[in-house]
Protein backbone atom coordinates (compact mmCIF):
# COMPACT_ATOMS: atom_id res chain seq x y z
CA UNK A 1 0.00 0.00 0.00
CA UNK A 2 1.37 3.41 -0.96
CA UNK A 3 1.93 5.51 2.19
CA UNK A 4 0.27 8.89 2.54
CA UNK A 5 2.93 11.55 1.96
CA UNK A 6 2.64 15.30 2.42
CA UNK A 7 3.62 17.45 -0.55
CA UNK A 8 6.85 19.38 0.02
CA UNK A 9 8.24 21.90 -2.46
CA UNK A 10 11.83 21.74 -3.70
CA UNK A 11 12.79 24.82 -1.68
CA UNK A 12 11.09 23.40 1.39
CA UNK A 13 13.02 20.12 1.08
CA UNK A 14 16.33 21.98 1.40
CA UNK A 15 15.09 23.80 4.50
CA UNK A 16 13.76 20.66 6.15
CA UNK A 17 16.88 18.61 5.47
CA UNK A 18 19.18 21.36 6.69
CA UNK A 19 17.36 21.66 10.01
CA UNK A 20 19.06 20.61 13.21
CA UNK A 21 16.48 17.93 13.95
CA UNK A 22 13.94 15.80 12.15
CA UNK A 23 10.79 14.07 13.31
CA UNK A 24 11.69 11.30 15.69
CA UNK A 25 15.08 12.61 16.77
CA UNK A 26 18.21 14.49 15.74
CA UNK A 27 19.12 14.53 12.07
CA UNK A 28 22.85 14.34 12.75
CA UNK A 29 23.94 11.24 14.60
CA UNK A 30 27.17 9.50 15.52
CA UNK A 31 29.52 12.48 15.69
CA UNK A 32 32.23 10.49 17.49
CA UNK A 33 34.42 8.83 14.84
CA UNK A 34 34.34 5.05 14.94
CA UNK A 35 37.08 3.07 13.23
CA UNK A 36 36.76 -0.13 11.28
CA UNK A 37 39.42 -2.82 10.95
CA UNK A 38 42.88 -1.61 10.00
CA UNK A 39 44.28 -2.55 6.60
CA UNK A 40 44.18 -1.28 3.01
CA UNK A 41 40.77 0.36 3.57
CA UNK A 42 40.32 1.61 7.13
CA UNK A 43 36.88 3.23 7.39
CA UNK A 44 35.55 5.48 10.16
CA UNK A 45 31.90 6.34 10.73
CA UNK A 46 31.32 10.08 11.17
CA UNK A 47 27.55 10.61 11.11
CA UNK A 48 24.30 10.53 9.22
CA UNK A 49 21.34 12.65 8.23
CA UNK A 50 17.83 11.44 7.49
CA UNK A 51 15.40 12.68 4.87
CA UNK A 52 12.08 14.03 6.09
CA UNK A 53 9.43 11.29 5.63
CA UNK A 54 7.12 12.05 2.74
CA UNK A 55 9.41 14.63 1.13
CA UNK A 56 8.86 15.34 -2.56
CA UNK A 57 11.00 17.04 -5.19
CA UNK A 58 9.28 18.63 -8.18
CA UNK A 59 6.22 16.52 -7.47
CA UNK A 60 8.10 13.20 -7.22
CA UNK A 61 8.30 11.10 -4.09
CA UNK A 62 11.80 10.84 -2.61
CA UNK A 63 12.25 7.14 -1.91
CA UNK A 64 13.83 3.89 -3.01
CA UNK A 65 17.30 5.47 -3.20
CA UNK A 66 19.47 2.58 -4.29
CA UNK A 67 22.65 4.09 -5.81
CA UNK A 68 24.77 7.22 -5.54
CA UNK A 69 27.68 8.66 -7.56
CA UNK A 70 29.72 11.84 -7.10
CA UNK A 71 30.46 14.62 -9.61
CA UNK A 72 33.55 16.43 -8.31
CA UNK A 73 33.50 19.23 -10.90
CA UNK A 74 29.99 20.33 -9.88
CA UNK A 75 30.23 19.11 -6.26
CA UNK A 76 26.98 17.23 -6.58
CA UNK A 77 25.76 13.69 -6.09
CA UNK A 78 23.55 11.79 -8.51
CA UNK A 79 21.17 9.52 -6.60
CA UNK A 80 19.08 6.83 -8.32
CA UNK A 81 15.59 5.78 -7.24
CA UNK A 82 14.66 2.14 -7.80
CA UNK A 83 11.04 3.11 -8.39
CA UNK A 84 9.75 0.87 -11.22
CA UNK A 85 7.62 3.81 -12.40
CA UNK A 86 4.98 2.78 -9.85
CA UNK A 87 5.03 6.03 -7.85
CA UNK A 88 6.64 8.29 -10.44
CA UNK A 89 8.61 7.60 -13.67
CA UNK A 90 12.06 6.04 -13.27
CA UNK A 91 14.42 8.86 -12.26
CA UNK A 92 17.51 10.16 -10.51
CA UNK A 93 18.03 13.15 -8.23
CA UNK A 94 20.81 15.71 -7.91
CA UNK A 95 21.84 16.30 -4.31
CA UNK A 96 24.28 18.56 -2.47
CA UNK A 97 25.67 17.41 0.87
CA UNK A 98 27.34 19.57 3.48
CA UNK A 99 30.17 17.31 4.69
CA UNK A 100 32.55 17.98 7.57
CA UNK A 101 34.72 16.08 9.98
CA UNK A 102 31.72 15.98 12.31
CA UNK A 103 29.33 14.38 9.84
CA UNK A 104 26.69 15.61 7.38
CA UNK A 105 25.61 19.15 8.14
CA UNK A 106 22.91 19.45 5.47
CA UNK A 107 21.22 17.61 2.60
CA UNK A 108 19.77 19.59 -0.31
CA UNK A 109 17.87 18.00 -3.19
CA UNK A 110 18.49 20.37 -6.10
CA UNK A 111 16.63 18.63 -8.91
CA UNK A 112 15.20 15.48 -10.47
CA UNK A 113 15.53 14.00 -13.97
CA UNK A 114 13.36 11.30 -15.51
CA UNK A 115 15.30 8.56 -17.26
CA UNK A 116 14.10 8.16 -20.84
CA UNK A 117 13.74 5.32 -23.31
CA UNK A 118 15.09 5.10 -26.85
CA UNK A 119 12.20 7.24 -28.11
CA UNK A 120 12.86 10.01 -25.60
CA UNK A 121 9.90 9.23 -23.38
CA UNK A 122 9.80 8.65 -19.60
CA UNK A 123 9.16 5.03 -18.67
CA UNK A 124 5.44 4.26 -18.13
CA UNK A 125 3.87 2.53 -15.15
CA UNK A 126 4.02 -1.28 -15.21
CA UNK A 127 1.19 -3.29 -16.77
CA UNK A 128 2.34 -6.91 -16.82
CA UNK A 129 -1.11 -8.19 -17.78
CA UNK A 130 -1.39 -5.93 -20.82
CA UNK A 131 -0.94 -7.24 -24.36
CA UNK A 132 1.91 -6.72 -24.91
CA UNK A 133 3.08 -6.38 -21.29
CA UNK A 134 4.49 -3.03 -20.18
CA UNK A 135 7.68 -3.75 -18.22
CA UNK A 136 9.48 -0.64 -16.96
CA UNK A 137 13.07 -0.94 -15.69
CA UNK A 138 14.08 -1.84 -12.16
CA UNK A 139 16.87 0.74 -11.64
CA UNK A 140 19.58 -0.35 -9.20
CA UNK A 141 23.11 0.74 -10.18
CA UNK A 142 24.47 4.17 -11.14
CA UNK A 143 27.92 5.49 -12.08
CA UNK A 144 28.93 8.97 -13.23
CA UNK A 145 31.57 9.38 -15.94
CA UNK A 146 33.36 12.74 -15.41
CA UNK A 147 35.26 12.64 -18.70
CA UNK A 148 32.28 11.93 -20.93
CA UNK A 149 29.79 13.86 -18.77
CA UNK A 150 27.24 11.03 -18.71
CA UNK A 151 25.72 8.40 -16.47
CA UNK A 152 25.63 4.61 -16.62
CA UNK A 153 22.67 2.88 -15.00
CA UNK A 154 21.50 -0.69 -14.64
CA UNK A 155 18.15 -2.44 -14.49
CA UNK A 156 17.63 -5.85 -12.91
CA UNK A 157 15.04 -6.79 -15.51
CA UNK A 158 12.01 -8.92 -14.78
CA UNK A 159 11.38 -12.64 -14.41
CA UNK A 160 7.71 -13.52 -14.06
CA UNK A 161 7.17 -16.09 -16.79
CA UNK A 162 5.79 -15.66 -19.37
CA UNK A 163 6.94 -12.04 -18.80
CA UNK A 164 10.72 -11.86 -19.21
CA UNK A 165 12.87 -8.73 -19.48
CA UNK A 166 16.65 -8.97 -19.59
CA UNK A 167 18.84 -6.89 -17.29
CA UNK A 168 20.59 -3.98 -18.96
CA UNK A 169 23.30 -1.36 -18.54
CA UNK A 170 22.42 1.86 -20.36
CA UNK A 171 24.02 5.23 -20.95
CA UNK A 172 22.13 8.43 -20.10
CA UNK A 173 22.89 12.10 -20.45
CA UNK A 174 22.71 14.32 -17.39
CA UNK A 175 19.25 15.27 -18.67
CA UNK A 176 18.18 11.60 -18.51
CA UNK A 177 18.21 11.15 -22.31
CA UNK A 178 19.06 7.73 -23.75
CA UNK A 179 22.59 7.57 -25.23
CA UNK A 180 23.07 3.86 -25.82
CA UNK A 181 23.49 0.49 -24.10
CA UNK A 182 26.23 -2.00 -23.26
CA UNK A 183 26.34 -5.55 -24.55
CA UNK A 184 26.02 -8.08 -21.72
CA UNK A 185 27.26 -11.69 -21.56
CA UNK A 186 24.74 -14.48 -22.29
CA UNK A 187 24.54 -15.75 -18.71
CA UNK A 188 22.82 -12.48 -17.72
CA UNK A 189 19.83 -13.11 -20.00
CA UNK A 190 16.54 -14.03 -18.32
CA UNK A 191 15.02 -17.45 -18.99
CA UNK A 192 11.75 -19.20 -18.24
CA UNK A 193 13.85 -22.23 -17.22
CA UNK A 194 16.04 -22.69 -14.14
CA UNK A 195 18.96 -20.82 -15.66
CA UNK A 196 20.21 -17.26 -15.84
CA UNK A 197 19.63 -14.63 -13.14
CA UNK A 198 17.13 -15.08 -10.35
CA UNK A 199 14.33 -12.56 -10.06
CA UNK A 200 15.34 -9.37 -8.23
CA UNK A 201 18.94 -10.60 -7.86
CA UNK A 202 20.64 -9.49 -11.07
CA UNK A 203 22.59 -6.27 -11.81
CA UNK A 204 22.56 -4.48 -8.48
CA UNK A 205 25.78 -2.44 -8.55
CA UNK A 206 27.77 -0.33 -11.00
CA UNK A 207 31.07 1.50 -10.69
CA UNK A 208 33.49 3.17 -13.10
CA UNK A 209 37.24 2.65 -12.75
CA UNK A 210 39.13 5.88 -11.90
CA UNK A 211 40.78 5.97 -15.34
CA UNK A 212 37.38 5.72 -17.04
CA UNK A 213 38.23 2.61 -19.09
CA UNK A 214 36.19 -0.01 -17.27
CA UNK A 215 32.64 -0.17 -16.02
CA UNK A 216 32.03 -2.93 -13.48
CA UNK A 217 28.52 -4.43 -13.20
CA UNK A 218 27.84 -6.63 -10.17
CA UNK A 219 25.11 -9.20 -9.61
CA UNK A 220 23.39 -9.16 -6.24
CA UNK A 221 23.32 -12.97 -5.90
CA UNK A 222 24.37 -15.97 -7.99
CA UNK A 223 22.31 -17.02 -10.99
CA UNK A 224 20.74 -20.45 -11.17
CA UNK A 225 23.78 -21.88 -12.99
CA UNK A 226 26.15 -20.66 -10.27
CA UNK A 227 24.66 -22.40 -7.24
CA UNK A 228 22.38 -21.59 -4.34
CA UNK A 229 22.20 -18.07 -2.87
CA UNK A 230 23.85 -17.49 0.52
CA UNK A 231 21.96 -18.65 3.58
CA UNK A 232 22.83 -18.93 7.27
CA UNK A 233 24.94 -22.03 6.61
CA UNK A 234 27.03 -21.04 3.59
CA UNK A 235 28.16 -18.18 1.42
CA UNK A 236 28.13 -18.12 -2.38
CA UNK A 237 29.87 -16.74 -5.45
CA UNK A 238 28.34 -14.04 -7.61
CA UNK A 239 29.61 -12.37 -10.79
CA UNK A 240 31.18 -8.96 -11.41
CA UNK A 241 31.50 -8.19 -15.12
CA UNK A 242 34.11 -5.80 -16.55
CA UNK A 243 32.72 -3.79 -19.47
CA UNK A 244 34.92 -1.72 -21.80
CA UNK A 245 33.48 1.79 -21.95
CA UNK A 246 34.89 2.58 -25.41
CA UNK A 247 33.51 -0.56 -27.11
CA UNK A 248 30.48 -1.17 -24.88
CA UNK A 249 31.35 -4.88 -24.68
CA UNK A 250 32.15 -7.30 -21.82
CA UNK A 251 35.86 -8.07 -21.66
CA UNK A 252 36.27 -10.01 -18.40
CA UNK A 253 34.38 -11.28 -15.39
CA UNK A 254 35.26 -12.31 -11.85
CA UNK A 255 33.69 -14.30 -9.02
CA UNK A 256 33.00 -12.34 -5.84
CA UNK A 257 32.59 -14.34 -2.58
CA UNK A 258 29.46 -13.42 -0.61
CA UNK A 259 29.28 -13.96 3.14
CA UNK A 260 26.69 -16.30 4.66
CA UNK A 261 23.51 -14.66 5.90
CA UNK A 262 23.43 -13.39 9.47
CA UNK A 263 20.33 -13.76 11.67
CA UNK A 264 17.63 -12.52 11.47
CA UNK A 265 18.17 -12.45 7.68
CA UNK A 266 17.91 -15.63 5.61
CA UNK A 267 20.04 -14.45 2.70
CA UNK A 268 22.78 -11.98 1.83
CA UNK A 269 23.68 -10.06 -1.29
CA UNK A 270 25.97 -7.53 -2.94
CA UNK A 271 24.05 -4.26 -3.05
CA UNK A 272 26.67 -1.96 -4.60
CA UNK A 273 30.36 -1.20 -5.01
CA UNK A 274 32.73 1.69 -5.73
CA UNK A 275 36.11 1.40 -7.45
CA UNK A 276 39.18 2.69 -5.58
CA UNK A 277 41.52 1.73 -8.43
CA UNK A 278 41.27 -0.21 -11.67
CA UNK A 279 41.11 -3.50 -9.74
CA UNK A 280 40.16 -2.69 -6.13
CA UNK A 281 36.80 -1.79 -4.63
CA UNK A 282 34.71 -1.10 -1.58
CA UNK A 283 31.82 -3.56 -1.74
CA UNK A 284 28.54 -3.30 0.15
CA UNK A 285 26.92 -6.50 1.38
CA UNK A 286 23.52 -6.45 3.02
CA UNK A 287 21.62 -9.25 4.70
CA UNK A 288 17.91 -8.45 5.08
CA UNK A 289 16.10 -5.18 4.38
CA UNK A 290 14.40 -4.75 7.77
CA UNK A 291 16.87 -4.76 10.67
CA UNK A 292 19.62 -5.34 8.09
CA UNK A 293 23.18 -6.51 8.61
CA UNK A 294 25.34 -4.17 6.50
CA UNK A 295 29.06 -4.72 5.93
CA UNK A 296 31.64 -3.05 3.70
CA UNK A 297 34.52 -5.11 2.32
CA UNK A 298 37.73 -4.12 0.60
CA UNK A 299 37.99 -6.39 -2.47
CA UNK A 300 40.68 -6.92 -5.08
CA UNK A 301 40.66 -8.80 -8.37
CA UNK A 302 44.26 -9.98 -7.71
CA UNK A 303 44.67 -13.46 -9.24
CA UNK A 304 40.93 -14.16 -9.63
CA UNK A 305 39.84 -16.40 -12.51
CA UNK A 306 38.31 -14.73 -15.55
CA UNK A 307 34.85 -16.37 -15.59
CA UNK A 308 33.44 -14.62 -18.67
CA UNK A 309 33.31 -17.91 -20.56
CA UNK A 310 32.55 -20.09 -17.53
CA UNK A 311 29.04 -21.62 -17.66
CA UNK A 312 29.02 -22.07 -13.88
CA UNK A 313 30.88 -20.79 -10.84
CA UNK A 314 30.51 -24.19 -9.17
CA UNK A 315 33.76 -25.38 -10.74
CA UNK A 316 36.25 -25.78 -7.83
CA UNK A 317 39.00 -24.44 -10.10
CA UNK A 318 37.43 -20.96 -10.03
CA UNK A 319 39.60 -18.60 -7.95
CA UNK A 320 37.45 -15.78 -6.49
CA UNK A 321 38.41 -12.20 -5.75
CA UNK A 322 40.15 -11.48 -2.44
CA UNK A 323 38.38 -9.46 0.23
CA UNK A 324 38.80 -8.24 3.79
CA UNK A 325 36.29 -6.61 6.12
CA UNK A 326 36.60 -2.82 6.13
CA UNK A 327 33.63 -1.94 8.39
CA UNK A 328 30.64 -3.73 9.91
CA UNK A 329 28.05 -0.95 10.14
CA UNK A 330 25.81 -3.14 12.27
CA UNK A 331 28.46 -3.22 15.00
CA UNK A 332 29.24 0.53 15.05
CA UNK A 333 28.30 2.02 18.46
CA UNK A 334 25.83 4.87 18.15
CA UNK A 335 24.88 4.16 14.54
CA UNK A 336 21.15 4.05 15.00
CA UNK A 337 18.97 3.72 13.12
CA UNK A 338 20.61 1.70 10.36
CA UNK A 339 18.32 0.94 7.46
CA UNK A 340 18.53 -0.76 4.07
CA UNK A 341 21.84 0.70 2.83
CA UNK A 342 22.22 0.12 -0.92
CA UNK A 343 24.35 2.93 -2.38
CA UNK A 344 28.04 3.80 -1.93
CA UNK A 345 30.38 6.32 -3.55
CA UNK A 346 33.65 8.13 -2.86
CA UNK A 347 32.94 11.82 -2.29
CA UNK A 348 35.05 14.96 -1.87
CA UNK A 349 38.09 15.20 0.44
CA UNK A 350 37.28 15.96 4.06
CA UNK A 351 38.87 18.95 5.82
CA UNK A 352 41.56 16.69 7.33
CA UNK A 353 42.53 15.31 3.91
CA UNK A 354 40.88 11.91 4.21
CA UNK A 355 38.56 10.70 1.44
CA UNK A 356 34.86 10.77 2.19
CA UNK A 357 32.69 7.73 1.50
CA UNK A 358 28.94 8.41 1.30
CA UNK A 359 26.20 5.81 1.67
CA UNK A 360 22.46 6.03 1.03
CA UNK A 361 19.59 3.79 2.11
CA UNK A 362 16.58 2.48 0.20
CA UNK A 363 13.38 2.85 2.24
CA UNK A 364 11.39 0.64 -0.16
CA UNK A 365 8.73 3.40 -0.11
CA UNK A 366 7.65 2.01 3.25
CA UNK A 367 6.47 4.15 6.18
CA UNK A 368 8.28 1.67 8.45
CA UNK A 369 11.70 2.46 6.94
CA UNK A 370 13.82 5.57 6.42
CA UNK A 371 15.96 7.30 3.83
CA UNK A 372 19.36 8.19 5.27
CA UNK A 373 22.72 9.46 4.06
CA UNK A 374 25.75 8.24 6.02
CA UNK A 375 29.29 9.64 6.01
CA UNK A 376 32.47 7.59 6.42
CA UNK A 377 36.12 8.60 6.26
CA UNK A 378 38.61 6.46 4.34
CA UNK A 379 42.17 6.52 5.66
CA UNK A 380 44.97 6.40 3.09
CA UNK A 381 46.82 3.05 3.07
CA UNK A 382 49.92 4.48 4.74
CA UNK A 383 48.14 6.32 7.51
From TrEMBL:
<dbReference type="Pfam" id="PF13449">
    <property type="entry name" value="Phytase-like"/>
</dbReference>
<dbReference type="InterPro" id="IPR027372">
    <property type="entry name" value="Phytase-like_dom"/>
</dbReference>
<protein>
    <submittedName>
        <fullName>Phytase</fullName>
    </submittedName>
</protein>
<feature type="domain" description="Phytase-like">
    <location>
        <begin position="61"/>
        <end position="365"/>
    </location>
</feature>
Amino acid sequence: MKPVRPLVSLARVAVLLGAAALAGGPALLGCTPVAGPTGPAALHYLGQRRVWPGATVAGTVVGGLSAISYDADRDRFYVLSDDRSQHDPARFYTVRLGLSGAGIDAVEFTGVQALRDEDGRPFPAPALDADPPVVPPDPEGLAFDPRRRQLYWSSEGERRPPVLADPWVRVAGLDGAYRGAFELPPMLAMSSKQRGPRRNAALEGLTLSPDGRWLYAAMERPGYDDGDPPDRHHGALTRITRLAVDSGRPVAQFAYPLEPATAPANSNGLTNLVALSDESFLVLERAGSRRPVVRIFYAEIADATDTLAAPSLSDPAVVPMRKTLALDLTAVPGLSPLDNVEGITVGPPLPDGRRSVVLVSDDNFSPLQITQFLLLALDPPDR
